[in-house]
Design a protein that fits this description.
The structure is a single chain. The chain is of the alpha+beta class. The chain has one domain (2-58). It contains one helix and three strands, in the order ββαβ. The chain has one helix at residues 29-46, and strands at residues 2-9, 15-22, 51-58.
């Protein structure tokens, strides 16, 4: 599995992480890295009140922590 993790904040300061999980057989870490910014921009267009602060790609951790 590959995760794209987007950190987004409201103007009042509340932040959250949004996670997209992809099958590693279909999406590689390199593909996530290359297209993650476009995916984050698309997410922000659909959620106008939120502002993307950062995004990253990685592997999910065994204990449920974020990538």
């Amino acid at each position: 599995m590959i995760e794209l993790v987007i950190t987004a904040c409201l103007l009042i300061g509340n932040c959250k992480e949004v996670t997209f999980t992809y099958d590693a057989h279909e999406v590689s870490l390199m593909t996530c890295t290359l297209f993650g910014q476009a995916e984050a921009a698309r997410w922000q267009q659909q959620h106008a009140d939120w502002q993307v602060r950062r995004w990253r790609c990685g592997f999910p951790r065994e204990n449920g922590e974020k990538a």
